[in-house]
Amino acid sequence: MAPVVGLLERLNKGEKVVVAEGYLFNFEKRCYLKAGPYVPTVVLEHPDLVKQLHEEFVRAGSDVVLAFTYYGNRQKMNLIDRAQDLEELNRSALRIARKCADETGTLMAGNISNTNAYNPADPNNRENLKGIFKEQIQWAVEEGADFIVAETFMVFDEAMIALESIKEYGQGLPCVVTLALMHNPAEDGEERTVDGVKVTEAMKRLEASGADVIGLNCVRGPETTVGIMEKVKKSGVKAHLAAVPVPYRTNEKAPIFMLLKDPKTGKRVFPLNLDCFMCTTDDIFEFGRRCDEIGISYIGVCCGNTAHYTRTLCESIGRTPPASKYSPNMNLHCVFGDEDHTHKYRKEQSEKLQRQKE
Ligand SMILES: [Zn+2]
């Protein structure tokens, strides 16, 4: 197998990098993980299933095997009284991911995230958080991660502490830092982090502090992610840009999935009844096209992702991953046969991209 090209080499050459995420929701849906605490204990209890999902995502076109250590941090393990399993969980997740990446010629990423331990009123806040990040980063380095993903930060200050920790303990590995941008608009309408930093300003500061890839992940669907990333692009940042939305139809009124309300009952649907807002594969295809137009090169799908979304995202940028073998052929459908225009549209777009590449 040819040597695997690194994250930054790919992005610097103008290639896109597709990342499949969404492990937590995926395993919750399959009844191997508890909603509420959301701790990835499935890594210890069913490592074979974690390996399988990595393989499934790679087959669907993911360039990255993201080690399933999201919420596998000290604070979360304390919450479920399993602090003693912290290191084993992290190392196991990293080893499963490393093995899959080696077998498939993809990149393996270590993963740190928002901690729920952020408390600016505590004088030891910074030190506590750095301790939580440090051990996870060091395990990722020791288990051979190709880069580190730090994600889902609603508080800008916490993202900065995570970035600082990567710079200090990450042995120079490249890093992706993405914010989960809540709905907290300033007077001029620009969205801010929970601690009041406007998104364009936040991105500039992450870039200035050495993040290689910056952007948004989680909480927002494609529709309320892309516009913000376009604004970030226009603000003049030079770092590679990331967009990893959730596959739910958030909208102007409910820009984050926590605000979505069931049209039938009027009740909040997050996090257990989100299904009625699931994106279609056409939504994801359109998202991929928009990212291509704007110049967002690190793209993926977060909580709610399944292989068919990742496959669609890849196809939207002209790729045909192994899973495309089973992409729809509606021409052969008993009822919709040749009349399916959506299929035709996608096929035309893909063929156009292929021709451009040749
Ligand atoms: Zn997510």
Description:
Keywords: Metal-binding, Methyltransferase, Transferase, Zinc. GO terms for molecular function: methyltransferase activity; zinc ion binding. This is Betaine--homocysteine S-methyltransferase 1. This protein is α/β, with parallel strands linked by helices and about 350 residues long. The protein contains 13 helices and eight strands. The protein has helices at about 5-10, 25-30, 40-45, 45-60, 75-80, 85-105, 125-140, 155-170, 200-210, 220-235, 280-295, 305-315, 340-355, and strands spanning about 15-20, 65, 105-115, 145-155, 175-180, 215, 240-245, 300. It has an eight-stranded parallel β-sheet with strand order 1-8-7-6-5-4-3-2. Strand 3, helix 7 and strand 4 form a beta-alpha-beta unit. Helix 6 crosses helix 7. The longest helix has 19 residues, at about 85-105. The two termini are about 25 Å apart.
Please trace the helix and strand order, writing H or E for each element. HEHHHEHHEHEHEHEHEHEHH
As a percent range, the share of helical residues equals 40-55%
Q: How large, in whole angstroms, is the Cα Rg? A: 20 Å
As laid out across the biggest beta sheet, the strand order is 1-8-7-6-5-4-3-2
Mean pLDDT level: 96
Largest sheet: 8 strands, parallel
